[in-house]
Amino acid sequence: MYTRQVLVSLFAGVWVGALMIADWNPIAATALSMDWIVEVVRSPFDTKFLVLIMFMGAGAAFIYKSGGILALQNWIGRYINTARDSQILTWLIGIFIFFDSYTSTIVTGNATRELSENNHTSREMHAYVLDSTTSPVTTFGPVSNWIGYQVSMIIVGFEAARFTAEEVGITAFGLFLQSIPWNIYCFLAFFMVGFISITQRFYGPMLDAEWRSRKEKKTLRDDATPLSDISTDIGEPSEQNPTLFNFFAPILTLLVVGIVSLWWLGGGHQPGVDVTTAFQETDVALALLYGSFAFMAVGMLGALGFGTMDIEEASDTVVNGFKTMMIATAIIVLAWSIGHAAEQVGTAEYIVDVMVGSGIPGSFLPLLIFLAAMFIAFTTGTSWGTMAILTPLAIPLGYELVGLSILPVLVGVLFGGAIWGDHVSPISDTTVMSSIFAGSDHIDHVRTQIPFAMTAAGVTVLMLLLYAVGITSAMILLPLSVVLTAVAVVALNKFDARRKNLPEVMPTADAIDNGEIDTDALENGTSSDGARVNGQYDLLRSIPLAAVGIVIVYLCLVFAFVTLGL
Q: What residues does the Na+/H+ antiporter NhaC-like C-terminal domain cover (predicted)?
């Protein structure tokens, strides 16, 4: 955080871990650090992931270079006229791509980045919308590779507790369904994105970032280093026959091939294998590798077929697309390496032993597990790794201390705490990818997202304290948490805006340029004298109304999925 040099900092963390293992011998620690980096790169999953990231970069380059983004802007741009509209649109697209967070981040980020840029949404805000929409949505479904993984972790928890589904009368998938209403943090994180986007009430570093973007037209701060700047890396988009085919066809191919591959590799084509089992048993990295290759290939064929570039330009675009992913690849490799270093020195085990071995009453166990998941995910940068560490511990511990009734609560809060760690950890792969596809400075993204993530986590902690003292119904705690989160956002916004002499409701860039906002009153601290300093938005416009309606339908489907599944 201090140096803003993420690569140097990550390697320093890896090296310090190696130094501890190597008995404080700096030369041996350096050699061990190299061994760890090679080890994580040679992992089959990680190797596939690195290749698919390259293919994703090339596919995104074709969408941009072939004019697909220009065609999208020409088609939908007339409806998206403000930063608020672009933020809501990003939120909505993220909802529809619910089967994988990586794919959702890539597709949503590419689809909306130019619109966000043109409407003066800060890169930090764009990255936040991506990060805090995609992971929560894939966590509770209705169908995703995340769900398959989470169910597999519950099965491991059953094995650790030494009971079977038949003995306790509930399957691992059924327990997952019961846990969804208790995944309070993810619901709040998802809700906050929409609430902040619609109301335009910001606080913390994000307030400064949005004001800079609207007033100064700087979507990046001075001296910021975006992880990927596609216009610099790829060049300007072709204006020869821009067509929506070159935007939608690669994305639809990615979605279809990705989903079918997840299903097929999990044995879904075999008799007696249902969708849930297929997603649980699949090879996620290989399925997404197939999808990303198809994404790149269709992008290339579309560019050649519609004459937007020749074969030489297409070949250059592949290479340049790979280049856009180089910094991201370096960060991801080092993020994996520091996670490996934390595993070697026993970070997670130490935290679990201290927190869980404290003799806390069973009713406080959900709070304890939530805090443990938060800290482990933050320090290791992996929500999946956190789930793998804690689920086999939480299920037998909860079953022994309290009984079957607490298991859905523990599973829900564990998954939510793991996602929180992903949102605030600078070494999280999903956080890195959000920075990449928003074109944001990575540390700026982390800094601006932390206050929002802390707000949702703080309300979650309060709900778990209420659970500990006897309010044990999710149907009470979840709606209450949403109301308290909305109140907290408004209160923090008012406090921070007044402290900084900035608008409470962020105005549009046009309103500032046209003199509709009294910037002198803001700068002089006299905004309370009746001067107009806040933005004004029509809440009954089609875009926010459509957003609210779609989200309500989506959440109804999620809870219908829970009810019918049970």
A: 137-467
